[in-house]
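Two folds, back to back.
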Amino acid sequence: MTSDQYAVAVPFYDLWHEDGHVPEIREKLPPLLKGSVLEIGAGTGLVTELIADTTDGEVFALEPSLGMRSVLLSRLARRRDLLERVTVLPYGALDVDLDEPVDLIVMIAVLYAIDDRETLWATLARQLVPGGRLVFNFTERPAPAPGDEAELGSYRVGRHTYELWGRTLDVEGERVSARFRYLVRHKGVVISEDVVDTVTHRPSGDTLRAELTEAGFTPEEAPEGLLVWRLAK
């Protein structure tokens, strides 16, 4: 049995992310992709496919959500050329333990979901070869303020409209509680609705720099919106 807290988001995932950070990632990430790659939080495979198409190395796509993983595997199934090189791992970021270390770790739209970053950095360091790199997206912004619900996205699919709504419930330090509603409408009438409460963690840039330095990483130049940290040799 599995408890998949992301299941209700799966039908909305590609619609929302193709309208969000993914196009920018497709532009900025490829020059950083070399060798073998571990992707943390692969989701439905939007970035996984980009990674596999850019590097000739082996790719490990880590995704704990059964719903997300199912779409990812379906995406790979239509790409027979990738089936030999992409391994899908059903783990969370703190549980990964590869057979051998990789050259690069990519973590897109995942950082905020993890509260135990001390364990995260140590775990990821063990998956990298000496001198390997960690790449993730990060933009420092003011903490959101609790307020009214707002529409985050609306997408027409045939005769239905898929809507994503969200509101911040509470902010305490870097901990942010929020509520999301996933709606499907037909002729304006709601025919499907799911509500999910989430907790994310939004560290400052200074906090991340201190943590990664302590974990044995050093910063390198990176495109705007991405951070690159290299593990000591």
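---
second:
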Amino acid sequence: MIEDELVKIWQSSPNQERVKFEKSRLMIDVQSNLDTFHRKIKTRDWAEQIAALLGMPVFAYYAYHFPFVLTKIASVLIIVWGIYVIYRLRSARKHKPTAFTETYLQYLYKSREYLNIQKQMLDNILYWYILPAMILMILFVLGPGVAGRLPKIMKTSAGIVGLSVVIYYLNKRAVKTQFIPRLEKIDKLIKVMEEA
């Protein structure tokens, strides 16, 4: 009964009031969506940075204690790659907009820019994250030599390649299911805000 009355009141209200209602509903939806998404990105970044930081002393130990030259080189390069990953994640994070320091429209523009930077980072993840890690880990495994270890090397390399493929497709799926819909919502809200 009350719902029907509210619908009648809403339908009888002037178009300008309906647009304001739709705009505010869209703003709340986009803001809630962005807040949740920013928390997810922050959690992902922290997990990656902690993993890199924990891996660095392990590979430093390997570089110092293992007698195999290829393993030493791979270990040092893995440490350098970990530093690069941390740098890349932190530099992308610098573009995160601060809420309500400017007009809401400027906040939306900056949010769109930030999401595009994050999306581009995932679009290029094969080149800056997956391939270097995969190649360096295979070099690390090959360090002691191949003689008598070929089956183990093949299994380990297949596991590394398989994990790399899974990481690649999970990131491509995230772009398609999480970034693109949010960017579309932001574009829609920007259009509504510019028309008002």
